[in-house]
Write the structure tokens for this entry.
Amino acid sequence: YEITRERAGAGLNFDYQPDDFSNYYLRTLYSRFKDSETRQANVIEFADAQLAGERGDAEGAREIKDREETQEIKSLVIGGERQLGDWKVAAQYGYSEAEEDSPLHTPGAVFEGNDDFLNAGYNDSKQPNLSIDDAFYDPANFSLAEIEREQGLTTDTEQNIRVDLTRDWFMADLPSQLQFGAKFSTREKDNNLDVWAYEDFDSYGFTDDQLSLEQFVSGTTRLGPKISASALERLLSGLNPADFYDDEESRINDFTIQENINAAYLMNTVDIDDLRIIAGLRYEGTRLKTEGTGLNEGVFESVDTRNSYHHWLPGLHAIYQLGANSQLRASWTNSVVRPTFGQLFPGFVVDGNEAEFGNPNLKPLESSNLDLGIEHYMGRAGAVSAFVFYKDIENFVYDADLAGTGDYATFDEAMSYVNGDSATVYGLELAYAQKFSWLPAPWNGLLVNANTTLSRSDADIEQYNPDTGRMQSRSIDLPGQSDLTGNLTLGWENDKLSLRVSANYKSDYLDEVGDVLDKRYDYRVDDQLFVDLSASYFLTDNLQLFMAAQNITDESYYVYTGDRKYNAQYEEYGPTYKVGLTLTHF
């Protein structure tokens, strides 16, 4: 990968307080992110399955991806609050627009080997090192097979209006606060993609010499010859793009998703001596509409799906003051998480015994949550806490192969997203933060912040087993849930200088269910430990210099299949460094 990234952002905010009973505000934000990427790749396909250290014949290919995309986010929020008699009224309107523009680019071009390569294999199954005949590194042994070109534009807009009313009152001589409100939001995502597939170059008069990789090399990399994206574009300049337009891919990836959410809540807070109780009820109603196109054995089919669901979400919180600096907390809450737009993708492809599709009929994840804990505050700069939690989850979403079930009983592969039956998550959270301000200088600038979460999760999934003729289920970890996470920060600061070193740890977790019937094909992300440094210094009372170094130990991202020694994905990103100035009170 060769990546260049540019970021720019701006915000302009206004606050207005005409009197002691009202205030108004305007918040604006603009963010721009430009990402340019060129990726060189080698693809090796062994004639027979091989373990590390074995050698055999293999087909080889060289590929390139060259693209540029720009993401922009614009948002505006205007609102305010005012005291009207005994009621405080707050209102807010928000608008946001996100856009991802990918101008004409090359998502993939393939040069195939003219013949099989001998003595091909690899060493080390975690970080494979390729061993292959020298002919693999000679560009004369590869010819251009296909070039894919595409351009796309995605827009995502959202508008919302919310109103909240609050009043203090007495419930049987007990101080209370009543609060209720409503929020109405609408969101629409449009995706438009155009694809061109260039193949069969010899039928357009190109010679073998013109298609040889030798004509497209612009240097070398660790992988061998480096393919030039601009040379590929020059080759296509004499062709008529209309002759290569891929109507299937273009239409399947054009879709619109609309989501309207109406929400309202009612809550009341009452204080009974040292006990505070907060009881509330929230309603959320969601209407979803998806429109797209599917391809079923070469025939286009319109997809128009409508779905709606309603949720009543009660909650109860209790806070008990054990003393001036200690308190117990307990809560019972209910929550809902809607599927992502990527999971709701309405397009599909059915080709022979294989299919791939999103699932606009997914149900939202529902969770009932119990939390109990204790907090103790040590002055103005110290706290320690311990909490236990339990979550009962229904309808979690995971990737699955539906081949062998229902309409896909005769399929070899049918990849989609489905809802799991049920899952539970429980665990313990511990946190400690302290600044040692009572120590003599310079030790009074020392500080420490530490927290850890120990958890366990269990989820049930099932799928039809064609070998037994019945449904088969198994238990998995909840996808994305680590059993152990922790953060530790050590630092020192005074009025001018601030120093921090932090470590963030996350244990391994399930990323994707590879085969519902066999856990050996599950994809798991290995544990990670990131170490970061940061520092800031006030050059003047209004001007601050800051520096940061992230991932200084170059922690990798490693995904394995079933066992840690079987690589599915390995990436290294290196450290990231930042230097900047902050000017305030101007």
Notes: The chain has a mean pLDDT of 93. The longest helix spans residues 229-236. DSSP finds three helices and 32 strands in the chain. Residues 501 and 533 are 5 Å apart (CA to CA).
